[in-house]
Amino acid sequence: MDKIGLIKYNVSNLSVEDFFRWCRENGVEYVEIMRDDVWQDVTKQEFKIKEVSMLLDKYGIKVSQISACNDFLQKSMEDFKKQVELVATMCRIVKELGFNQIRMDGGWEKPGIEKKDYHRLILDGIKRSVDIAEKEGVYLALDNHGKVTNDYLFQLEIFDSVRSKYLGANLDTMNYRWYGYSVEELLGIYKKIVPYTLHTHLKDGVLIDSFKYAAKVLGEGEIPIVETIKMLKDAGYKGPWCIEYEGKDGIEGYKKSVEWLKKIKV
């Protein structure tokens, strides 16, 4: 497998430079970095674009996307608009780094917001963000993350409603299982999401309770990773194969997952 990627998450508190160095030493070409790697304080327009760019050049690493860490489920219109502005700023940041994609979330359940408003707020936030992204030429990969956007039918509703080439999916292979779908349902769900997929989080594990799972190295859990990769390839997916690992052993689990991904034949 080529075009292997890694998300800078659960990596034993490695600095950005140490993470990039580790990736180069382990044959990882692409990274997904987090918002706070380039923009730590969202109340200030202070960025680390130059520093991160220099490190990317130094280690020969490419950014597949940046996680915006946004949340459209807000109690006030003022806070809601700030989240749209956050996405707009992230679009500009990723362009200044020389790349063109961010990972976005829908939002997180919280007291004070009625469930009946979840879909409306998220769809509105995404539509406003896509308007910005289209002007900036930046792609938005919507993650199946949390209890709202892991509903794949809602994801499909979003894609069908927005209908923009700049909006697609960040396909997280474990999260649908975490949400409660059976193993037997997964490939059917993936098949529906694959046509929209802009990016992956290849993640394995075993569900142990409601909204709780045990992380596993790729190939050691119950998620059909090989079949999913084949499905994506058959559909023409050209993006990186980005690994996410949430086990306690952090970087060691990533190392084993990278080695597994290098060896498989699909």
Structural account:
The structure is a single chain. With 266 residues, the chain is of the alpha/beta class. It has one domain (4-263): TIM Barrel (Alpha-Beta Barrel). It contains 10 helices and 10 strands. An 8-stranded parallel β-sheet has the order 7-6-5-4-3-2-1-10. Strands 8-9 form a two-stranded antiparallel ribbon. The relative contact order is 0.13.
Which labels suit this protein?
266 residues; alpha/beta; TIM Barrel; eight-stranded parallel sheet; two-stranded antiparallel sheet; 43% helix
Radius of gyration: 18 Å
**CATH domain topology:** TIM Barrel
Provide the spatial order of strands within the biggest beta sheet. Answer: 7-6-5-4-3-2-1-10
Rounded mean pLDDT score: 97
Distance between the termini: 8 Å
Helix content: 40-55%
Number of separate domains:
1
The percentage of residues in β strands lies in: 15-25%
Q: List the total number of helices.
A: 10
Regions with pLDDT < 50 over 5+ consecutive residues?
none
- Given the helix and strand composition, which structural class is it? alpha/beta
Provide the CATH top-level class.
Alpha Beta
Compute the number of strand runs: 10
Task: Please state the second-level CATH architecture.
Answer: Alpha-Beta Barrel
Order of helices and strands: EHEHHEHEHEHEHHEEEHEH
Approximate shape: globular
Describe the biggest sheet?
8 strands, parallel
| The CATH homology group name | Divalent-metal-dependent TIM barrel enzymes
Helix/strand layout:
Blueprint: E1 4-7, H1 16-25, E2 30-34, H2 35-38, H3 49-59, E3 62-67, H4 77-96, E4 101-104, H5 118-136, E5 139-143, H6 152-162, E6 167-172, H7 175-179, H8 183-193, E7 197-201, E8 204-209, E9 212-216, H9 225-234, E10 241-243, H10 251-263
Helix pairs in contact: 1-3, 4-5
